[in-house]
């Protein structure tokens, strides 16, 4: 199994469940009153309550677009990408960077979109036209 584990800060468990389970369709793993784990597209997210969530910096410049740093996300298939896009749109989640195709006709061509979860964490979802070009 090649998966990642990422622990991050959230404001509360209730809105975190709503975003990751109800909207994104993740399944819940272990949880307590102060943290909750999710199966995030076969990766383990561990959300921990904090009242000290740092401000973002839009220092990332990708294909002429400023992106929030830090951020995390997931590489998806095109079908999964469209499903997540639809789920976000149906829940009226505002896109930080609207779904778009980046590097069209070039190596690394991909679909990408950014949203904030309900604690203000930026997430990017990507789908590469050719999965063999992820690191090219």
Brief sketch in words of this structure:
The protein is α+β, with helices and mostly antiparallel strands and 136 residues long.
Can you describe this structure?
- There is one protein chain.
- This protein has 136 residues and is α+β, with helices and mostly antiparallel strands.
- The protein folds into two domains: 5-49, 2,3-Dihydroxybiphenyl 1,2-Dioxygenase, domain 1, CATH 3.10.180.10; 58-133, 2,3-Dihydroxybiphenyl 1,2-Dioxygenase, domain 1 (Roll).
- It has helices spanning 13-23, 78-90; strands at 5-10, 27-31, 35-39, 44-49, 57-62, 65-69, 72-75, 95-102, 110-116, 122-128.
- The chain starts with a strand and ends in an 8-residue tail after the last strand.
- The mean pLDDT is 95.
CATH topology of the largest domain: 2,3-Dihydroxybiphenyl 1,2-Dioxygenase, domain 1
CATH superfamily membership of the largest domain: 2,3-Dihydroxybiphenyl 1,2-Dioxygenase, domain 1
The residue-averaged pLDDT reads 95
Specify the helix fraction band. 10-25%
- Head-to-tail CA distance between termini: 23 Å
Low-confidence stretches: none
Order the strands across the largest sheet as they lie in space.
1-4-3-2
Q: Which secondary-structure class do the elements indicate?
A: alpha+beta
What is the CATH architecture descriptor of the largest domain? Roll
Largest sheet, in brief, is: 4 strands, mixed
**Rg for CA atoms:** 15 Å
């Amino acid at each position: 199994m090649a998966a990642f584990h990422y622990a991050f800060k959230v404001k509360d468990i209730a809105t975190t469940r709503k975003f990751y389970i109800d909207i994104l369709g993740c399944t819940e793993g272990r949880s307590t009153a102060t943290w909750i784990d999710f199966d995030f597209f076969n990766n383990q997210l561990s959300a921990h309550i904090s009242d000290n969530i740092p401000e973002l910096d839009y220092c990332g410049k990708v294909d002429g677009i400023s992106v929030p740093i830090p951020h995390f996300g997931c590489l998806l298939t095109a079908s999964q990408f469209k499903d997540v896009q639809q789920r976000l749109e149906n829940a009226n989640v505002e896109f930080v960077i609207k779904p778009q195709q980046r590097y069209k006709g070039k190596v690394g061509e991909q679909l990408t979109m950014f949203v904030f979860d309900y604690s203000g964490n930026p997430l990017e979802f990507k789908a590469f036209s050719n999965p063999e070009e992820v690191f090219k």
